[in-house]
Amino acid sequence: MKKDFRIRKSRDFAAVSGSGFVFFTSSVIVRCGFNGLDAFRVGFTASRRVGNAVVRNRCKRRMRAVADMMLEKIALAGVDYVLIAGKSVRNVGINDLTNDVVRAVRFLNDKILKSDSKCRS
């Protein structure tokens, strides 16, 4: 995934967390919101509750690897996704993490499509 499709600015993270939808899994929290662009963007974050800087960076690297594998196939254009590491993300296997992210993104995509159709009608 190109770095142009990454969320880096705190105002973009705040825009996604301030509005949009959220889905909780055991290992990751996924938030999403409209961005008004022609492509999707993705951001990654991990709080201090997850661990020290080394652990947080490892968790973000794992989430980034999952996003690189899966999001281009299932993400909607015009949507920002923020993946927030949960406490168990460091202990869960990569397959379980992939399943959690895919399940969350598909659920959020359904919510977005339903809300978008309500806005248009």
Task: Give the SSE map.
Layout: H1 10-18, E1 21-24, E2 28-34, E3 41-45, H2 53-74, E4 79-85, H3 94-120
Parallel strand pairs: 3-4
Antiparallel strand pairs: 1-2, 2-4
Helix pairs in contact: 2-3
Walk me through this protein's architecture.
With 121 residues, this protein is α+β, with helices and mostly antiparallel strands. It has a single domain (3-112), classed as 2-Layer Sandwich (Ribosomal Protein S5, domain 2), CATH 3.30.230. 48% of the residues lie in helices and 19% in strands. The protein is built from three helices and four strands, in the order αβββαβα. A four-stranded mixed β-sheet has the order 1-2-4-3, sandwiched between helices. Helix 2 (53-74) links the parallel strand 3 and strand 4 (79-85). The longest helix has 27 residues, at 94-120. It is globular and about 40 Å long. The N and C termini lie far apart (34 Å). The model has no long low-confidence stretch (mean pLDDT 88).
- Radius of gyration over alpha carbons? 14 Å
Q: How much helical structure, as a percent, in the residues?
A: 40-55%
**Strand-residue proportion:** 15-25%
Low-confidence stretches: none
Series of secondary-structure elements, N-terminal to C-terminal = HEEEHEH
What name is given to the CATH topology?
Ribosomal Protein S5, domain 2
The assigned structural class equals: alpha+beta
